[in-house]
Amino acid sequence: MNKEYEAVISSETAKINAFLGSCAQLESSGGSPWETVLEAEKYALSAGGKRIRPLLAVEFYKLFSGADSAPDFVYEAAVTLEMTHTFSLIHDDMPEMDDDDLRRGKPATHVKFGTATGLLAGDGLAILPYEILADMALGGRLDPLTAVKLTKLLSANAGNCGMIAGQMLDLWSEERADAVNGEFLREMSGLKTGCLLTASCLFGAVLAGADDERCRSAEIYAKKVGLAFQIVDDVLDVTSSPEELGKPTGSDSDREKPTFYDILGEEGALREAERLSAEAASELEKYPGSGLLREFALSLAKRKK
Amino acid sequence: MNKEYEAVISSETAKINAFLGSCAQLESSGGSPWETVLEAEKYALSAGGKRIRPLLAVEFYKLFSGADSAPDFVYEAAVTLEMTHTFSLIHDDMPEMDDDDLRRGKPATHVKFGTATGLLAGDGLAILPYEILADMALGGRLDPLTAVKLTKLLSANAGNCGMIAGQMLDLWSEERADAVNGEFLREMSGLKTGCLLTASCLFGAVLAGADDERCRSAEIYAKKVGLAFQIVDDVLDVTSSPEELGKPTGSDSDREKPTFYDILGEEGALREAERLSAEAASELEKYPGSGLLREFALSLAKRKK
């Protein structure tokens, strides 16, 4: 990726981290023992990560509004996507799910704070986004209809028929290796990863007041990027060391759960990721100023962690 | 309670159950294995219970709107309170929390469907209410600002600083029996039970467009009723059999966690519950047509299950 885009991404990521770190609804008053749950949530949120979801929301806002920079309300709304992602990671790492002790090189939230607090911290971060969006509307920082649209986007894509459905398919596939083929993996990944990325891109589009055609482009881009991302993830899970990746590798293969790596092979998987990334990029060609988002898609297929 | 009120409560409860049972967002198409999570959620929702939260929403709507019956949109919004309550029960019964195998006389959701699906079913029911409220606004059944107000009420009272804070205090108290006194139990119960009951009464008030004074009365009523309810719950946990209660009894005392029963004694606890119920009832005296809600509060102190 060219240096200019890298600098923009780095500066936007810093701004997203600042908004995440200063979320008023997560401030402790320090007065009561229940506030450990806030510490656990802030621990999980501050464990790093690429902030891809809020970044996509901010960049799609800029693309479709034509503005060089996004106003504060865009960041305030965008961090709810990272909270939703983090809630799913906390619960996903728990013993009844993937049972991973490490996340981004640090103890998982349920390991650091205990499983009960981990469960509740995930619950808290699952619900907080809706309070933030409502607070924005009640505080005059978002008109109520836009808040409702974002609430729908987030809840529908994170909930039963979105991310949760993807988690269910993942569980289901654990003991049914025979039934897992490319089509199944595409469906699972589309739900588990693609839905929240779709919500992310559409957050930016809706906040910019984009028309249906632009929203459709954001959705197509998100779905292709999401699938490319998952395919590369599966490859890195086999070919990287835990140190490079910051989380345990080989966890999927330990449980004999087939992934894109198993079904397409390393070369085939990377070729497929490149094809999807290129299609995602080309979907945005018609929009002036889409260079960063196009390069971002292309870079995903080449990422090393 | 007089027969007329009993008949109203019974008919409203049936209507609430019908709305819960026909929730469009929980319909399975039967096509994919992920839909087990919908089955788990419907199982948990249909396990019975008194539907107190949606009932309070409906009755406060009727009280403050002056209408004899509530329109459909009130029930559609009110069932989100039961979903939120049910999500908390599913997670509360899990091994890392209270580790209860029975709920309302039937296997707990995580026992029936496995802990991973139980976890995800709780997550699904935690998020679904916000999708329903957004769908109502987008479908023209609720104006967007009212949807935002209900979203705020529910998320703030179910989230970190509400129900979840109460769960955290409950966990915290497990190993600190010495620190548990009446004041602590009031705070814990206010958060764990009182917050969602407050949201319930205010749902009805907001849907009826009630003024600040009426909202304040709904809140006072809810907090007193919530505390009375919890105190009686603690007494019944010791004095009832599992058959009478439909769930394991003595679970609190097994873990040496002091309750209102331990701190106030049976007689003192029941006297306190009666006092709170009477205060809740008297708060509504100034509103014509509040007979049912006043009798409902008084009946809570006398309930046997």
Question: Any chance you could write out the topology, listing elements then pairs?
Answer:
The structure is a homodimer of 305-residue chains.
Chain A: H1 3-21, H2 36-45, H3 52-65, H4 72-92, E1 102-103, E2 106-107, H5 109-113, H6 115-138, H7 144-158, H8 163-174, H9 182-207, H10 212-239, H11 242-245, H12 251-254, H13 260-283, H14 291-300
Antiparallel strand pairs in A: 1-2
Helix pairs in contact in A: 1-4, 2-6, 3-4, 3-9, 4-6, 4-9, 6-7, 7-9, 8-9, 9-10, 10-13, 13-14
CATH class of chain A: Mainly Alpha
Oligomer: homodimer
* CATH architect. name of chain A: Orthogonal Bundle
User: Would you give the CATH topology of chain A?
Assistant: Farnesyl Diphosphate Synthase
- The outline of chain A comes out as globular
Biggest sheet of chain A: strands, sense, closure?
A: 2 strands, antiparallel
User: Biggest sheet of chain A: strands side by side, in what order?
Assistant: 1-2
Task: Give the rounded overall mean pLDDT of chain A.
Answer: 93
Counting H and I runs of at least 4 residues, what is the number of helices of chain A? 14
What does the radius of gyration of chain A come to?
19 Å
Percentage of residues assigned to helices of chain A: over 70%
Number of strands of chain A: 2
Distance between the termini of chain A: 15 Å
Number of domains of chain A: 1
